[in-house]
Design goal:
Lipocalin; mainly beta; nine-stranded mixed barrel; 2 domains; seven-stranded mixed beta sheet; OB fold (Dihydrolipoamide Acetyltransferase, E2P); globular
């Protein structure tokens, strides 16, 4: 990721929608000329949980924006925070802020309090793994910092990826497994007898995990999520997913073939408050050896899954 920079200027337009809000800033460059910066910030869902509404960005307002600038030398920035003339600071991306700002360590520090009645209801309803989980640590494969064991075919496919045209998110195409699990939003497990449903807030994703042996249906309702079969090993849910119709392993163009197999382990802690996750991905076409991802979530009583509704 590029270094943190600051740009000061006037807001000339604002687009308030998922997957990320965007705004343009008119600034003056070093030669006195006018430059229009294209700013991208966090999602509506994250901002809403932090009490940041549309009134935080007003056309005609002058402010200072901090964030990592484009690695391609463009006048673009992923805005981490904005500072107003009166000294007020608003965090626009808590996850990046926790990584880049020296005095901001907890990405959930500014979240609004959850109503007591929602917390009480969720404590009554929670049973084992079946509750809402919020991410505490995740692999962040989209950082671009990983060096995967790519085969020559895999490297060629990655080298051909253009982030300005090939990123599915630009067309509101939701990610598949395993990258769909590597996100900063909550998800929920619900029990439906012979199936387990996983509702992911990001992209309004839904995974169906079949808990009894059966042939894969001829047409999957969510082909990018693949066909998932689960089983229990003590307090661990083991999920094997095949037939994934999604061409990428991460958010930065690393490829994934239809032959990929993903084996996940979701392990519940003894006190039911922590869920550890590993995913072992085997894809001989593009990777010379299996790749393992890991992370963990915490139970957040009262947290609800919001609609995401990506909009072009």
């Amino acid at each position: 990721m590029s270094k943190l920079v600051e740009v000061e200027g006037e807001v000339v337009s604002v687009v308030w929608r998922n997957p990320h809000i965007r705004f343009k800033l008119k600034a003056t460059d070093e030669l006195g000329g006018e430059t229009i910066w294209d700013m991208e910030a966090g999602s509506l869902n994250t901002l809403q949980r932090n009490g940041v509404g549309k009134d935080a960005l007003q056309v005609g307002e002058t402010l200072r924006v901090s964030g990592p600038a484009s690695l391609h030398g463009l006048d673009t920035m992923f805005a981490v925070s904005i500072n107003f003339a009166n000294g007020e600071e608003v965090i626009l991306n808590p996850n990046l802020a926790a990584r880049l700002l020296p005095n901001f360590n907890d990405p959930r520090a500014n979240e609004l309090a959850i109503a007591d009645e929602l917390i009480a209801e969720s404590r009554i309803a929670a049973q084992g793994i079946f509750r809402v989980w919020v991410p505490v640590s995740r692999p962040v494969t989209g950082s671009g910092l990983y060096v995967w064991p790519l085969t020559p075919e895999g490297q060629a496919a990655k080298d051909s990826w253009d982030p300005l045209t090939d990123d599915p998110a630009l067309k509101c195409i939701p990610p598949g497994i395993p990258v769909a699990m590597d996100n900063p939003y909550p998800f929920e497990f619900t029990n439906q007898d012979d199936t387990i449903i996983m509702r992911l807030e990001e992209w309004d994703g839904v995974r169906t995990i079949y808990m009894t042996p059966r042939p894969a249906p001829p047409e999957l309702t969510a082909p990018h999520m693949g066909y998932s079969v689960g089983s229990w090993e003590d307090n661990t849910l083991v999920v094997t997913t095949t037939g994934i119709d999604y061409p990428f392993f991460d958010d930065v163009g690393s490829p994934q073939s239809p032959a990929a197999t993903v084996v996940e382990h979701f392990t519940l802690s003894e006190n039911d408050t922590r869920l550890d996750w590993t995913a072992r991905v085997t894809d001989p076409m593009y990777y010379s050896e299996p790749v393992t991802l890991s992370g963990h979530w915490a139970w957040s009583p009262g947290t609800q899954i919001k609609r995401y509704e990506c909009t072009l």
